[in-house]
Amino acid sequence: MKEQANWSPYDNNGGTCVAIAGADYCVIASDTRMSTGYSILTRDYSKIRELAEKSVMASSGFQADVRALQKVLSARHAIYQHQHNKQMSCPAMAQLLSNTLYYKRFFPYYAFNVLGGLDNEGKGCVFTYDAVGSYERVGYSSQGSGSTLIMPFLDNQLKSPSPLLLPAQDAVTPLSESEAIDLVKTCFASATERDIYTGDKLEIVVLNASGIRREYMELRKD
Amino acid sequence: MFRNQYDTDVTTWSPQGRLFQVEYAMEAVKQGSAAIGLRSKTHVVLASVNKAQSELSSHQKKIFKADEHIGVAIAGLTADGRVLSRYMRSECINYSYTYESPLPVGRLVVQLADKAQVCTQRSWKRPYGVGLLVAGLDESGAHLYYNCPSGNYFEYQAFAIGSRSQAAKTYLERRFESFISSSREDLLRDALFALRETLQGEKLKSSICTVAVVGAGEAFHILDNETVQGLIDAFEIVGEEVPATEEGGAADEPAADQSAPAEEVPAPMDI
User: Average of pLDDT values for B7-19?
Assistant: First the structure.
């Protein structure tokens, strides 16, 4: 029998993250439960971090790696600001995140990220990643333990018709900001029902032209 | 200071126990355009004179932000200053990354001083030709430090470096005791007046100076031209002499400033 490792450097702290891009806003949300195995470590842990004025990242997976990743990106952003005298744009941050993840291709950050914000034209943008930096700009995405429950629902509600259709459809949803927030709340309420790692509280961050706003909603605690 | 046989390299002592290359580096600071700093209990202000090479070119950048709570004004070889401010930024970022806390100003200046000292003890290096006025706020309050090319550093209530800085120092010496309890506005006012002293009659306007502030609840930032001009206009009534607390300040400035100290003056690093 092949030798098994008696220790893993990784752990999965569970949780789910979602982001939806609108015409002039972006909604980034995640639950606040942090687990290990079948236990709960805390009911009140934020998986969301503002990396720049118009870039917010939500990450599920191994929170120690998530924290390390957030710190690296924040430090890189500070350097960028000194060099360019301005904040990083969301697409620039998206590329930086991808490069940072791939840098550790052979000992990855166990982090499943979704980056949301406003692009240079003020339109909402969402970028979704795998653990080693493969990314794509999309209109909406979810990552984490509840993503398999949420993603099909978002596809049903938000997916644009085939990209082969002309004229080309915009990736961002035509929904209003409040409609998008309600949709997010619905997603999490449903995911909480069936995913044991999702629950306790929902943290919603909304980015628009007037700045950043936070909202919370209670979720089932079982 | 005249050329002598002990001044070729930084690693040669003179018989009087001086390192001439280091002293020459400090001369470079004195030749640079003026920079001043002053602090109160809660704020630190930096101001510098920005002379452009010609009307066609832009002004030399002399004040740099190192972190939200630390900034630096330089005088001397500005290229050296640029490199050192990049070092300061890097140190601030690395400290924040490790300790999730802002780098205490006192630690940063020691690191800078040690870095400068290395260049005074390597035959293949030369000292940095720039003086740094480091302004910052940390848990222990507001601080202003001066870092020399020699590797020495001192904390000050107020200080001025660069050409004609003696005029500013004289102004500051008369009033520094009140600075600790000054308001932010008074500090800015004194900074601008002190800066005006170094201009030797030339009109003070925002196009030739740069002012920066850091304070409790106020991140380090450089004031924009409009704000500075507004302050100048508010503080300066046309032809107003330096306020009446001293007798005719500008008139009796000592003619000999820092250009040629007598040979018997103790080497600057010994102070």
Answer: 94
Q: How many whole angstroms separate alpha carbon A175 and alpha carbon A179? A: 6
Give the type of residue at B197.
E
Calpha distance B100→A1 (Å, rounded)? 46
Task: Please indicate, yes or no, whether the overall pTM of this predicted structure exceeds 0.90.
Answer: no
> Each residue of B176-215: pLDDT tens digit?
999 999 999 999 999 999 999 999 888 888 889 999 999 9
The token pair that represents B210 in the structure block: 């740069």
Contact residues for A160 (Cβ-Cβ < 8 A; gap 6+): A139, A169, A170, A171
Nearest chain B residue to A71, by CA: B97
| Distance (Å) from the alpha carbon of A68 to chain B's nearest alpha carbon | 9
Phi and psi, residue B133, nearest 5°: -100, 110
CA distance A5 to chain B (A): 30
- Residues in chain B with CB shorter than 8 Å from the CB of A82 are 65, 86, 89
**A71 in contact with chain B, both atoms CB, cutoff 8 A:** yes
Element (H, E) at A68: helix A63-84
- DSSP result, B18-62: --HHHHHHHHHHHHSPPEEEEE-SSEEEEEEE--BSSTTSPBPP-
Q: Per-residue pLDDT tens for B36-68? A: 999 999 999 999 998 877 888 888 889 999 999
Rounded Cα distance between B45 and B190, Å, is 9
Query: How high is the pLDDT of residue B104?
Result: 98
| The pLDDT of residue B260 is above 50 | no
Can you tell me the distance from the alpha carbon of B151 to that of A155, in angstroms, rounded to the nearest whole number?
64
Q: How far are the Cα atoms of A160, B84, B107 from residue A182, in angstroms, in the given order?
A: 19, 51, 50
Collapse the DSSP code of B88 into the 3-class scheme (helix H, G, I; strand E, B; otherwise coil) and give the result. helix
Distance of CA A77 to the CA centre of its chain: 18
* Sign (positive or negative) of CA dihedral A76, A81, A87, A90: negative
Cα–Cα nearest to A207, from A173, A181, A183, A175: A181
